């Protein structure tokens, strides 16, 4: 993940596109508004005990995706593909689907001012961590990775460039999977909005996965279109592989001694994302 935002006073920069007012006192961010990632977030148990998850329609990959149909998964930063889709990736591989993993950025801004993880190091380390994670998931043989090399933390300002790159990558009949367009992280939201717009323009099937939404949202939160939600259930083995794959992102799960900052992915975040299910949104009207 890139740097987590907070509701501290934010100085507007060029990347905060078309923003004229920020209500920092109410915790509003110029891009994500009230979907702010701060503190420990909603607990793992709160989600686990929510009846809405239990009653949610199941998403059966074998019934929904034709074997050999290409699936393109968009990760704003290397690790999002596993945090959001670690179970889905395994089920797609078992179903025979070719997978294109698209790293929108290489996550080089995750450790500002670090003497351990410079931007140059992260540009190499984070894609390498992704490769290890895909091997742990036993899907590497079916995944082709493409790096778009957009600037971490600045995807909103590069939407036109992003859209142009998609025109050279996406094929007719591809299935697109992107973070939720209101996921709470600026790069996630920019990615979701560009991909959903592209899918709509080209009449492609597109699913949105919840990643950081699990942190800021609450059960039955009206900011999430739960009526479009489907649940992918993971087997015990699939969940275990996902947990082991998350552990491959060492740069994100270890503290930075040079800055004194805690891990980017806290224990609570990892626990919350390590559930025996993943949730995807699909709206046929988009």
From TrEMBL:
InterPro entries for the chain: GlcNAc_PI_deacetylase-related, LmbE-like_dom_sf
An example molecular function term from Gene Ontology annotations: hydrolase activity, acting on carbon-nitrogen (but not peptide) bonds, in linear amides
Domain of life: Bacteria
Chain ranges passing through the membrane: none
Pfam families (alphabetical): PIG-L
Annotated coiled-coil segments of the chain: none
Alphabetized PANTHER family for the sequence: BLR3841 PROTEIN, N-ACETYLGLUCOSAMINYL-PHOSPHATIDYLINOSITOL DE-N-ACETYLASE-RELATED
Protein's recorded name: LmbE-like protein
Organism name: Psychrobacter cryohalolentis (strain ATCC BAA-1226 / DSM 17306 / VKM B-2378 / K5)
């Amino acid at each position: 993940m890139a740097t987590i935002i907070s509701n501290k006073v934010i100085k507007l920069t060029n990347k905060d596109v078309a923003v004229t007012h920020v209500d920092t006192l109410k915790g509003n961010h110029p891009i994500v508004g009230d979907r702010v990632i701060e503190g420990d977030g909603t607990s793992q148990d709160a989600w686990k005990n929510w009846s809405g998850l239990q009653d949610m329609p199941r998403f059966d990959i074998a019934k929904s995706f034709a074997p050999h149909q290409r699936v393109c998964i968009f990760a704003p930063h290397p690790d999002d593909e596993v945090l959001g889709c670690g179970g889905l990736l395994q089920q797609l591989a078992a179903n025979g689907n070719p997978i294109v993993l698209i790293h929108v950025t290489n996550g080089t801004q995750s450790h500002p001012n670090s003497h351990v993880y410079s931007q140059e190091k992260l540009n190499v380390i984070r894609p390498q961590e992704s490769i290890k994670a895909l091997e742990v998931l036993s899907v590497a043989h079916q995944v082709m990775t493409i790096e778009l090399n957009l600037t971490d933390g600045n995807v909103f300002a590069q939407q036109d460039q992003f859209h142009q790159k998609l025109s050279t990558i996406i094929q007719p009949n591809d299935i697109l999977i992107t973070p939720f367009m209101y996921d709470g992280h600026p790069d996630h939201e920019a990615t979701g909005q560009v991909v959903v717009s592209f899918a709509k323009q080209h009449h492609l099937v597109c699913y949105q996965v919840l990643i950081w939404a699990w942190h800021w949202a609450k059960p039955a939160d009206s900011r999430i279109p739960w009526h479009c939600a489907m649940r992918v259930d993971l087997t015990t083995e699939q969940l275990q592989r996902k947990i082991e794959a998350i552990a491959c992102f060492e740069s994100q799960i270890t503290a930075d001694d040079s800055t004194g900052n805690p891990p980017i992915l806290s224990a609570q975040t990892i626990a919350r994302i390590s559930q025996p299910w993943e949730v995807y949104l699909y709206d046929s009207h988009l």
